[in-house]
């Protein structure tokens, strides 16, 4: 929605459009924007007194953005048939049981989990730790977990206290959603997996053995 509307607003208001904002600071005489480009590999700063800013999902608390008043609404008729783009239907996104951007602990599964049935192992670990379940994109693409669980560039940016990555390689698109978490624990059989570049604790073990051991010890 933002991708569709922001450029139109920018042109109409004659304002710059700043995309993928992970930070916006008041600099006194304007604002300083931090944008994540190239899948989070590069942070770019830009400043403007006014701009249309598109924010990264999960980068800002929705509650902090709420104001006490209500906005005034002006209804504008756009005239049927005046545009080559026609409204057909509104497809509501699937309702999420859990908002993973608000979770304290996340147990995240990647393709290393192997099969849909084995997600139960991670789910049990999450329940034991009072955590919520998250995942990498292939898990959503395979239909094993809903999109609302996906962390990363085309998913959500999360900020739990602890992020446990099970069988996740650590592709840049995934790291974009979680690399700033203060405690990252990674389990991956491949010692060269890039997830270990951002992890604070790492285990080069089979994730099923680790889940079983943690389960037995608690
Ligand atoms: C435009 C674009 C947007 C994208 N957006 C996202 C996004 O939002 N989020 C996202 O996650 N990805 C995203 N991707 C995909 C991304 O590039 C990677 O393909 C994806 O993150 C890989 O997921 P993975 O780590 O689960 O799988 P893999 O890369 O296949 O890694 C699986 C890992 O599991 C390990 N493993 C295997 N078996 C075991 C075991 N038994 N125990 C322990 N470890 C094991 C392997 O060593 C391997 O490192 C995007 C890609 C593009 C192009």
Describe what you observe in this structure.
With 218 residues, this protein is of the alpha/beta class. The chain is built from 6 helices and 9 strands; from the N terminus they run H-E-E-E-E-E-H-E-H-E-H-E-H-E-H. It has helices spanning 2-13, 119-128, 137-141, 172-175, 195-198, 207-217; strands spanning 17-26, 31-37, 42-48, 52-55, 105-109, 132-135, 162-166, 183-187, 201-203. The strands form 2 sheets. Strands 6-5-7-8-9 form a 5-stranded parallel sheet. It has a 4-stranded mixed sheet with strand order 3-2-1-4. Helix 2 (119-128) runs parallel beside helix 6 (207-217). It starts with a helix and ends with a helix. 32% of the residues are buried. The model has no long low-confidence stretch (mean pLDDT 90). Bound molecules: flavin-adenine dinucleotide (FAD). Flavin-adenine dinucleotide binds at residues 110-112, 136-138, 150-155, 167-169, 171, 173-174, 177, 187-190, 193, 206-207.
Sheet with the most strands: spatial strand order: 6-5-7-8-9
Structural class: alpha/beta
Distance between the termini: 44 Å
> In percent terms, what proportion of residues is strand?
15-25%
Question: For the record, what is the CATH homologous superfamily label of the largest domain?
Answer: TPP-binding domain
Summarize the helix and strand pattern as letters: HEEEEEHEHEHEHEH
Using the coordinates above, name the CATH class of the largest domain. Answer: Alpha Beta
**Secondary structure: number of strands:** 9
Structure ligands: flavin-adenine dinucleotide
User: How does the major sheet shape up?
Assistant: 5 strands, parallel
Q: What overall geometry do the principal axes of the alpha carbons give?
A: globular
């Amino acid at each position: 929605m933002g991708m569709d509307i922001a450029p139109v607003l920018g042109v109409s208001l004659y304002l710059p459009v700043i995309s993928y904002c992970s930070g916006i600071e008041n600099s006194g005489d304007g604002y300083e924007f931090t944008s994540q480009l190239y899948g989070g590999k590069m942070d770019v700063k830009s400043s403007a007194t006014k701009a249309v800013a598109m924010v990264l999902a999960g980068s800002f608390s929705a509650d902090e953005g709420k104001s006490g008043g209500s906005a005034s609404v002006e209804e504008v008729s756009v005239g049927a048939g005046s545009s080559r783009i026609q409204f057909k239907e509104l497809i509501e996104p699937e309702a999420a049981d859990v908002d993973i951007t608000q979770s304290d602990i996340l147990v995240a599964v990647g393709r290393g989990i192997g099969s849909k049935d084995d997600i139960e192992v991670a789910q049990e670990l999450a329940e034991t730790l009072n955590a919520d379940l998250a995942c990498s994109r292939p898990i959503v693409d395979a239909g094993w977990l809903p999109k609302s669980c996906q962390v990363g560039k085309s998913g959500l940016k999360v900020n739990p206290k602890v992020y446990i990555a099970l069988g996740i390689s650590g592709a840049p698109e995934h790291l974009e959603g979680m690399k700033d978490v203060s405690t990252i624990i990674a389990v991956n059989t491949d010692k060269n997996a890039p997830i270990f570049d951002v992890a604070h604790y790492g285990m080069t073990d089979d994730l099923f053995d680790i889940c079983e051991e943690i389960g037995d010890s608690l």
